[in-house]
């Protein structure tokens, strides 16, 4: 229960940065949930914004909350993206995709002027890699992609949902990859991008503009990037 106090504090605080007229990216997961819920309350109280969702799950929540959604292809730029993370290091590099939403999350983060990451205190790490890195792969020849990842030392495990393979919103599979401590995330990201069959991986290296950390006593800490995020597309 305590953990949700931190998630709620962080998720709700991020919403303070919204301004009327903005286009907002709605993240996925149990922390972004609190941001979406608060945005919903503000919209019902008269705040005019429009939003794009990073997953079907977040789109459903936004609809319940009466937040106006626009299809991503009708949006040129997103003002603020509020999203969670599975791990954050002190360079504001992230692992994301614990909920399987990494591909749309990365597309939306890359299209956003600001990405505010909301996490509870347990997500802060010195070195990325304790949380297995989610890698989204296309079903075609997935065994071959799996073998490429084994050769890279990824120890991949196919994500399951009950007895079936987990399938993303994009119709793909997820391999959860344990590389051990990821000391050079930039190099790993480059290596993963060279493997055919990988659609995207959960390393978000230059996206977060700020991280809001929520603690179990309800306090928050805001960490801003000392230099502007440079996004590579
Ligand atoms: O695919 C899911 C997303 O990347 C989530 O934002 C991430 O897993 C963090 O989720 P939560 O806030 O539930 O820990």
TrEMBL record:
- Which pathway does the UniProt entry assign to this protein? Carbohydrate degradation; pentose phosphate pathway; D-ribose 5-phosphate from D-ribulose 5-phosphate (non-oxidative stage): step 1/1
For this protein, the record's Gene3D superfamilies field holds:
3.30.70.260, 3.40.50.1360
Keyword annotations for this protein?
Isomerase
Q: What CDD domains does the annotation carry?
A: RPI_A (cd01398)
- The protein here is known as Ribose-5-phosphate isomerase A
Q: Which InterPro entries match?
A: NagB/RpiA_transferase-like (IPR037171), Ribose5P_isomerase_typA_subgr (IPR020672), Ribose5P_isomerase_type_A (IPR004788)
From what superkingdom does this record's organism come? Answer: Bacteria
Q: Which residues bind substrate?
A: 28-31, 83-86, 96-99, 123
**Signal peptide boundaries:** none
Its assembly, as annotated, is: Homodimer.
Which major enzyme category is it?
isomerase
Instruction: List the source organism.
Output: Chitinophaga terrae
Which molecular-function annotations from GO does this UniProt entry contain?
ribose-5-phosphate isomerase activity
Q: Which PANTHER family is this protein grouped with?
A: RIBOSE-5-PHOSPHATE ISOMERASE (PTHR11934:SF0)
The entry's active site is 105 (proton acceptor)
Q: State the family it belongs to.
A: Belongs to the ribose 5-phosphate isomerase family.
- Source organism phylogeny: Bacteria, Pseudomonadati, Bacteroidota, Chitinophagia, Chitinophagales
